[in-house]
Amino acid sequence: MAHTGGVDDNEPILSYLTDMDGVLVHEDHLIPGADKFLSELQTNGIPYLVLTNNSIRTPRDLQARLRHTGLDIPEECIWTSALATATFLDDQRPGGTAYVVGESGLTTALHDIGYVLTDSDPDYVVLGETRTYSFEAITTAIRLVDRGARFIATNPDPTGPSRAGLLPATGSVAALITRATGREPYYVGKPNPLMMRSALRRIGAHSQSTLMIGDRMDTDVIAGLEAGMRTILVTSGISTRESVENYPYRPTRVIDSVADLVGHVGDPFGA
């Protein structure tokens, strides 16, 4: 068994956090077995959250998208970097103000915590994913950060996938703002374990009895490890069994896909 970062392998798994893209779906197509895996969690009353670093969609919109692929996931079981960012800001500066570069997933999450969205001397500039980055909006963000607004970004992913190829994502646009201002953002999403801890609190779970499943060593596995969880890497997405060897840390287990856990959700390491 791989190194687990000091977590007791004999501790029962009582709850699950799982990444979405590359684990449950791949470009709007169901990964075979993902529906049976989630159904088994639900049947056994095992709390879980589906995580995504993408901040574009609200949980309700994501629920509809996932249902279209054949996955019926309750809205309250979806945790996005936008929700994690809103939780962080609500804790740091309740009732604050923000200038947002992003879409409905992020603006809705900030509205829901009582934030006022403004371009007039905001407490924060909050950068998230968007399909159409506006040069004008980025310019406004640069000027506000330069004047002293605190710079927050939902996630550090430099690119995202599309049918036509790579798309620049939050990390790339953040780099543009940083280059112009000399100010680095605070990233809330994976691999920041803060997102994992806020997810654990959301379902009232403890890290020692929670398993993190992901398809990327550099975000999912490291974030789970740093939050004190055991981790499973699936090779149905980005990382491969070979690429695991390139990192100084290891997942607790490597499997082909979540289909390998069907029938074993209560004992994922004995499967």
Automatic annotation (TrEMBL):
SUPFAM superfamilies: HAD-like (SSF56784). Its cofactor is Mg(2+). The active site is at D19, D21. The keyword Magnesium applies. GO terms for molecular function: metal ion binding; phosphatase activity. Mg(2+) binds at D19, D21, D215. This is HAD family hydrolase.
